[in-house]
Amino acid sequence: MTPRHFLKDDDLTPGEQAEVLALAADLKRTRHTAGAPMPLAGPRAVAVIFDKPSTRTRVSFSVGIAELGGYPLVIDAASSQLGRGEPIEDTTRVLDRQAAAIVWRTFGQDRIEAMAAVSRVPVVNALTDEYHPCQILADLQTVIERRGQLSGLTLTYLGDGANNMAHSYLLGGATAGMHVRIGSPESFQPAPAVLKRAAEIAAETGGSVLWTADAQAAADGTDVLATDTWVSMGQEGEYEARIAPFRPYAVDDDALARAAADAVVLHCLPAYRGKEIAASVIDGPQSAVWDEAENRLHAQKGLLTWLLERA
Ligand code: CP
Ligand code: NVA
């Protein structure tokens, strides 16, 4: 049987996304209770491979796989043959005979698609240049906790509209029936294909999507105010050139004042205070970033349980 993969946010239908988020909430509630589900009991191994650095993703998958009764096999690509150029397909065929699932943080989306094309076990995107769908599941769980719903809420993301977080907010937020606004410089707009796909999904879910260069209009009255680094992993060489264009899109006290009075502030972390987000905002009372980081654990446990047992 062909396994289900989670390579980008719209690999889950709206109904499936809601199921995963409900499972995540249950797993959070029952985390330390007897009888919590253990779909990886055995233990079965899950390979978690990193082509890029990570703190939250590494920790949350490792802890989550262990809590599901499994064994996290964390591999730094640089110390594996994958890092020396072994074909992705060959590595996958070795892993899928021994692991129950493969989680991969890598560069181009084409790489994880190549893995999924041959894998006999679920493949999960732990961040690519284009998408960060596990992060968005955690973000959506956090918003549900704070607001009790997703559908109909407005989520504004300010900053690099062309990066993985912007793309995943568009697809994942539209899937949840949210009104997603991306405020970014003209030269850092979301990929047109992603905007188009998100608009198609929103037309079905009752949400909407908007890109604008007007940061103030984007933040106006929003329920959720999110941002991300202006310099993603792999872009370090462009650091100086990238900072200036993004300054008007900082999530600072002015941006927060434009949002709804009880707006929830999100940031996937790591954060750069004084750049994309002011210290007063990320460390202030409306910030949900620590719950958001913890929810990586619960959301990914929900996702793995769903992929292994319910899909
Ligand atoms: N948010 C996130 O994915 O963090 P890490 O890069 O530390 O995994
Ligand atoms: N856009 C960031 C997200 C980090 C979790 C990056 O890709 O580096």
Can you walk me through this structure?
The protein is of the alpha/beta class and 311 residues long. The chain is 42% helix and 14% strand. The protein has twelve helices and nine strands. It has helices at residues 14-29, 56-67, 88-95, 109-118, 133-147, 164-175, 192-205, 215-219, 239-246, 253-258, 279-282, 289-310; strands at 45-50, 71-76, 99-105, 123-125, 154-158, 179-183, 208-212, 224-227, 264-267. The strands form two sheets. It has a five-stranded parallel sheet with strand order 7-6-5-8-9. Strands 2-1-3-4 form a four-stranded parallel sheet, sandwiched between helices. Helix 5 crosses helix 6. The relative contact order is 0.16. The mean pLDDT is 97. The structure holds phosphoric acid mono(formamide)ester and norvaline. Norvaline is lined by residues 127, 132, 163-165, 228-229, 232-233, 268. Its main location: cytoplasm. It is found in: Cytoplasm. Residues 152-307 form the Aspartate/ornithine carbamoyltransferase Asp/Orn-binding domain.
